[in-house]
Amino acid sequence: MTASCPAEYIAIAERLADAARPIAQRYFRASIPIETKSDASPVTKADREIEAALRDILREVCPDHGVVGEEMGGSPHHDGPLWILDPIDGTKAFVTGMPVFGTLIALAIEKRFVLGVIDQPISGERWLGSAGRATALNGEAARVSGCTSLAQARLFTTSTEYYTQNGTLDAFDRLREAVMLTRYGADCYAFGLLASGHADLVVEAKMNLWDYAALVPVVEGAGGVITDWQGAPLRAEGEANVLASASAGLHESALRRLNTKNC
After folding, report:
1. Backbone φ and ψ of 33, nearest 5°
2. Where are the domains of the chain?
């Protein structure tokens, strides 16, 4: 990230996160129906109500901006600023009462992510990363661990059920075998933990745009590295396999494990 994100956009992102939080809190661990979408993923009225509320705010304050969200669609092909929304990232965690889901809010300009928010409504933790500024957790600077050794690294992934592309599970296993420990099931919360120095690697397969957009500014602004599995920058485009690391050296080592069959 190079050019600074305008302060007015940061204020909008904070307003969006503030609006989403009480809705998620109201429905968390409540008895609400769980529906299944066409891709077999769960969805609830909380997901839809949050996204609708955020879109209402964006129509009010920046009607000329583009919007794409997990529940209500939209196109990433927008000439101006593009807001990218995931009202509840980690719906499986949400519906099973686990407070590791989050609301993800991102802003892309010319396909580059300049602003990202990970908001965990139950713990009250909010990571905010923006171009030209250090990532903050609830207003205080967040910083990655700086770990450089795979043998000392703490690795997160959500679930191996997403490693359905040819060779991706084998690649993950090569990385898992090289690290100190592996944990599962934290969704976007794992990237917040990495940004705050409590994890060193997060690897995910088949992430949609709304799954990874907000993570990029948060991780980079905390001193970390986040790319696809080939080391290419993430842009506001389509699906991606994602790797985030606590240092450039660790990232290079992890990329080699993911991409080298005999290592």
Report:
1. -65, 145
2. 7-141, 150-259
User: Which pLDDT belongs to residue 232?
Assistant: 98
Q: What is the CATH number of domain 150-259?
A: 3.40.190.80
Distant-in-sequence, close-in-space partners of 134: CB < 8 Å, separation ≥ 6:
141, 142, 143, 221, 222
CATH numeric code, 7-141: 3.30.540.10
What are the per-10-residue average pLDDT scores of the chain (263 residues)? 82 98 97 89 94 98 96 84 97 96 97 97 98 97 98 97 94 98 97 98 97 98 98 95 98 97 72
Helix H or strand E segment including 195:
helix 189-195
**Residue the block writes with tokens 């909380």:** 46
Which one-letter amino acid corresponds to residue 130? S
Q: Are strands 140-141 and 154-157 parallel, antiparallel or unpaired?
A: unpaired
